[in-house]
Each structure stands twice: as structure tokens, then as C-alpha cells.
Amino acid sequence: MQSTSPQAFDGKAFVKTLTSSPGVYRYFDEDGDLLYVGKAANLKKRVGNYFLKPRMEPRIASMVSQIARVEITVTRTAGEALLLESQLIKSLKPRYNILLRDDKSYPYIYLSGGEDYPRLAFHRGARNQPGRYFGPYPSAFAVRESLNLMQKLFKVRQCEDSYFKNRSRPCLQHQIGRCTAPCVQLITVDDYRNDVRHAEMFLEGRSSAVIDELAGQMEQASKALEFERAAALRDQVAALRKLQAEHHVQGASADMDVLACRIEAGMACVSVLFFRNGISLGTRDFFPRLPLDAEPSDVLEQFIAQYYLDRPVPRELILGESLPDQQILGEMLTQQSGHAVELKSSVRGERARFLQMAERNAQASLTARLASRQTLGARFDDLQKLLELDEPPRRIECFDISHTQGELTVASCVVFGPEGPEKSHYRRFNISGITPGDDYAAMHQALVRRFRKVAEGEGARPDVLLIDGGSGQVAQALDVLRELGVSGIHVVGVAKGPGRRAGEETLVMADSGRNLHPGPASPALHLVAAVRDEAHRFAISGHRKRREKARERSVLEDVPGIGARRRSALLKAFGGLSGVEAAGVEELTQVKGIDRGLAERIYAVLHG
């Protein structure tokens, strides 16, 4: 099964040793790198197609010529082979496979558990906290729009626990009618739990049941002459009915995804329309990698196997193409999800209309992507000429610094390649141990932390390093690269032009000390400005998150012996942190749970 070179590998002899059972095969080159992973209902027949056919596609023939070793895994069923294939492709990323490049987890609505007053929140990441998760949603916008609606309809709190536990009076959300102020017990636990239950029912798609229940409560309140409560319930029912009429999609099943694929110029786009509980959640486009010639049906099959491998699967998938292993794929998804999953490629009526919509979206997105790629390629070529490089750069990195009056400094590093931003390679650096406001020191620290790994032989090396700033910042970059012994990187400073006008930036060339003024018509400057602006955005967003986190943390947390309960008691007793700071030791001891020793420690921390 193994040999030292691809020329020595005898494919025909190897095929004779194979079983006719289902399984997965893996092709490796002479360096041990994985070339391709495939599945087969009949391993002998499928692998034989690569070695026994007299003629094949040029790109496939190129791959076969590199094969030095083949590994086989026999499975019990074709469904197991399909599942194993998708798992291996997703984890190993073979060079010649269709690969779904979607490394970003999808957002959910999270309802916390184990509390008297649960909260609704945006959530992305591991779902390991107690409570319920609703979703996934196709975008962060869809989640935030849903949370905004939930806040209007059910008034369940969405504030962070640190904010909620330290309130002494209702916040603005209560004043504008979007929260019932559970933080100061203006609503009973039972009434709040009733609102939470209605919110859960609504997120489960049982809006009609919520309306019926609220309508019944409205009649009871009216009969009991509780007219204010009856009027509030009436308004809530009217809002729910209006929302139901606006967002319910005629012809959509409770849970359904509609998928269409278009391929052009070596690029594929898969467009997905998401429907949950009969409501459209929007559209998302994906651009899988296409190393081998592939048909839309092949792309859709690999997309479904990889995308739904670790995500909830709807009960119905409407497909723009009939798939080669559609029945096997449906059985695998059914087994994995625990409920029946139907894959339909021949549809009529409203489902056909949804499919046409997905197909139009896929074509439009693909056209826009191809145009953007051509524009980006022209900009990279122009940058090569401007910087007098031997070839167009493959990797551009840009650093920027953000802070507020020198506090909580954050440095950002963004990465661009020939296909645009490579967000999985973005990095932020929390800067510490420098004089506040010293941007040179901040830049020096961030660059040392980034390029120390390059000096140690780890991490990718950029072709062009952009520094947001002039000659001073460029000098810091050169010093760091010289200290670490890193060479072969073109360092360029991006200095703002007169009046900070876009298109008039000055490029400071580190190697020659020259200043270039490409002008607003330069495609290369358009690329540099786009990378610089992205670094600026990424730095600012990181600084804001760090600042918000610092603001959420109470200085009382630094006092030994002060937990959440005592901290809350102090803030409520004195009306907030400013009241606690104004209090003396004797006043602090009047709060339940605060003895004199603890009061003295509190006073010492607050007054330095």
C-alpha cells in the first residue's frame, strides 16, 4: 500500500487487492501530504476508475500522477462512508477536495437557566451554559433583529448579569417600555417567568398559542375590571398578530432550507435560504473551494455533508440539483439529527418559487464575487509595480494602534491575500507595561509578539508589512525585524495626507526612505487604504470591547471578602458606586454583612 515515489506506485495492482465493500479512500503524495479523500459504495469499482480508465480529465490526471500511497477504511454502510468522508475533509482539508470554507460558528439566541430572572442574549460559540439555545440563525443581524422584537413583545431582560445585579434603580429600557425592571423587583418572579414562557413559546414557533393564551388573559382581566392590564394585553396581542402577518411566509414549512449552486470560472457559490417556524430568517452565501472540476450536484452534496455535520438539520432541504447519493445523504442526516429529513430536488408551487429565488441569489453573488476578485487581482498587480516587487504579494499584513487617552491600548494585525481579507489570521494584542499614549512603544511590543514566532520558524511570513503611521512607526518595525533577525519583508508606512483626505496618503518606503504619492486614481493605493482601514476598524473594535469589559467590572471586586451579594447590598444601600465612595467607615458598617474590618478595607481600596 505504500511506496517511496508516485512513479513506483502500481495503481492497477493495488485495485486488484481491494474489497467491494463500502468505505473511504485517501490518496497521499510522496511527501505524505493528503491529496484527496473520497467515499465509495464499492471501493474496488470506485478506486479502479482512477487507475484503469484510459483517459480522464487533465486536472484529475495531474492528481493521479502524484499518488504515492493509498489508504483504505472499510465501513459497514455507504452512509457511514459518506459521514466519515465529510468528517475527514472538514478536519484534514485535502488539496483536491471540495472544501466548505466556513470557520465561523453561527449565532444563536440564548435563554439563561437556573435563575429567578433569566435573560435573553446573543450567543456565538460553545453551547455549554445552562439554559436553552434557539437557532442557529444565518447572521448576527437576524439574531439582533429577533432580540429587538422580543424586547418589544415580552420585555424579558437582555442586560449582562454584572449590570443586572448591581442596579439600584430601573434603567432606560424600563423607561421606554422594553423591560419590566426585574433588577429592582418591580415585577414578581411568577409574572416574569410567565413572560419568559411566552418568549420561549414564540421562539419555538408557537406564536398562535401565545396569542390565544394572552387573549384569554385579556378577557379575564376585563371581567375582573382590571382595565389597565386588559389594555396592555390587548396591545401585546395586536403586536403579535401584526408581526405574525408580516413575517410568516406563505408556503414555507416549519423548518426548511433551500439550497442552490452556481459554478463559473472555477468558482462556486452555494446560496441558502433559511426558514424556521414558517418565518424567513434570511439568506447566506458560501464559496466552497473547487480544486477539481465539479458539477453543481457534487458541490451541493459535499456542502450538505460538511455544513450539517455539526449543526441542527431542518426537516426539509429543497435542492436545485438532484444529488448522486441523495437517498444515502438523507438517511445519514436522519440518523444524525434524530428526526426525519427529506431532500427534495423536484418541487412545485411556492417551493419552486423559493428555489428560483435561491438560484438568482447564487448567480448574483457569484457574479459580484468574480468581479471583486478581478478588481482585487488588478490592485495586487499594481502594488507589485508600485513597490517594485519581483512578483505580486501573496500575503499583506497591517498593524494599527487604538486607545483612549493612552488607556487600554490595543494593537491589531489584519491579513489580506489575493482573494481578500483572511479573517482567521487576524490578531489583536492587548498592550501593557508602556507609558500611556506611547504609540511607538505599543507598536514595538505588538511587532515583537507577532514576529518572534516567525523568527522561531513558526507562523506565516508576510511579503508586505504595512504600518499605519509615518517614519517613526516604520523605524519601530525595522528595529524589531532587525532584532529578531527576520528579513525579506517589505515594510511600508501609510501616512495620512493633508487634511486626512482619502486618496492623498503618503507611502513611506522603509528600504529606500523614499516617500511615494500614488494619488487617488492608483489601484495600489486603493488596496493599501482598504487594508489600513480594516486594521483601523479591527483595532477600534478590540479597544471598545476591552473598555466595555473594564467598565463592567466594579472596583469593589478588588476588595477581599466582597462577593456578589455584599457588593449588591452596598450599591443598593448607597444608590450606586459614587454613594459608596462618599460613605465613611461608620456608614459602611451599617450595611448588613459588612463588619468594621471589611468596611476599612473597602474604604482603603476606594480612596487609594
Automatic annotation (TrEMBL):
Stretches assigned to the UvrC family homology region profile domain: 258-481
GO function term, MF aspect, one: excinuclease ABC activity
GO cellular component: cytoplasm; excinuclease repair complex
Alphabetized CDD domains for the sequence: GIY-YIG_UvrC_Cho
Domain UVR: 208-243
Any single GO BP term: nucleotide-excision repair
Record's subcellular location: Cytoplasm
Domain GIY-YIG, residue spans: 20-98
Gene3D superfamilies: 5' to 3' exonuclease, C-terminal subdomain, GIY-YIG endonuclease, UVR domain, UvrC, RNAse H endonuclease domain
Keywords per UniProt: Cytoplasm, DNA damage, DNA excision, DNA repair, Excision nuclease, SOS response
Main location: cytoplasm
Record text on subunit structure and interactions: Interacts with UvrB in an incision complex.
HAMAP family: UvrC
Its job: The UvrABC repair system catalyzes the recognition and processing of DNA lesions. UvrC both incises the 5' and 3' sides of the lesion. The N-terminal half is responsible for the 3' incision and the C-terminal half is responsible for the 5' incision.
Family to which this protein belongs: Belongs to the UvrC family.
PANTHER family linked: UVRABC SYSTEM PROTEIN C (PTHR30562:SF1), UVRC/OXIDOREDUCTASE (PTHR30562)
Protein name: UvrABC system protein C
Gene: uvrC
